[in-house]
Design brief:
two-stranded antiparallel ribbon, five-stranded mixed β-barrel, binds zinc ion, OB fold (Dihydrolipoamide Acetyltransferase, E2P), alpha+beta, 6 helices, 2 domains, 251 residues, de novo design (two linked rop proteins)
């Protein structure tokens, strides 16, 4: 028996499926990460269209026997189409989607809200792209339960010194003191960057973007967060294989 269901969600990925259809990967509030087939999406002008980054209420058929979802209709909240005019923003948005696909495991509604806000900020021109990237990774690591208190080493529990450069544990996938660090750890967190991450930890995504940061610090912390994203995802992110996101964003 097919059932009509619906949920808020965002298209994370879209690929051709058969001659005329597309298979979409959606992050939904109510059903988590799901694959949905959009029949006829390839050709027909009248068919339901949902591009990557589209934030919408999705109306689906669910077949409990085959356990598959078919797209019936979309009420668009935002297509986030404008961000595609900027290559850096486009890469940032694909990186967010890729990280969620690889790492999904937190509360779906929270992940949806974070991604929805991040895409909104990339689409509007007010927030700096690089700070959106930093805070997306910072907040996401909290949602998947990997973020630890930046004031102390999570292994030996010693409080960090004011000017201590902090190392990384590839076992715990978290910062730690140099005594507890993995031998292969080359992810160093300078004191200023650690302070910024500590101060913005309890903040909402929106609030954290308002904390001022020099452009040199922004670039340094962004590279730390990208390296951190590589570590927690097991170096599986295609978007980080390109040098583009590692450079400074123009906006
Ligand atoms: Zn330690």
């Amino acid at each position: 028996m097919e059932r009509n269901i619906s949920s808020l969600g965002i298209v994370l990925h879209s690929q051709r499926y058969g001659q005329q259809n597309r298979r979409l990967k959606l992050l939904t509030v109510d059903f988590g990460l799901i694959d949905v087939v959009s029949y006829g999406a390839q050709k027909s002008v009248k068919s339901v269209k949902a591009e990557v980054f589209t934030d919408a209420q999705f109306f689906l058929y669910y077949n409990p026997v085959k356990k598959d979802y078919t797209l019936k209709d979309v009420h668009v909240v935002s297509t986030h189409e404008e961000l595609r005019q900027d290559l850096h923003k486009t890469y940032a948005a694909i990186f967010f989607c890729e990280l969620i696909i690889k790492m999904h495991g937190g509360e779906s509604s929270e992940e949806y809200r974070l991604l929805s806000q991040a895409l909104d900020f990339l689409t509007g021109s007010d927030a700096e792209t690089d700070r959106v990237i930093i805070q997306f990774v910072h907040h996401f690591s909290d949602l998947v339960g990997l973020r630890t208190d930046f004031s102390r080493c999570p292994i030996c529990e010693r409080t960090y010194e004011q000017n201590e450069v902090v190392s990384f544990s590839s076992t715990l996938l978290a910062h730690c003191c140099s005594n507890c660090a993995s031998l292969d750890a080359n992810l160093l967190l300078p004191p200023g960057a650690r302070k910024y991450l500590m101060v913005t930890s309890p903040m909402s995504f929106e609030q954290s973007l308002e904390v001022p940061l020099s452009s040199a610090a922004t670039l340094r912390i962004k590279r730390y967060e990208l390296q951190y994203a590589q570590m927690i995802s097991g170096r599986m992110l295609k978007t980080l294989a390109s040098p583009l996101l590692w450079d400074e964003a123009s906006v």
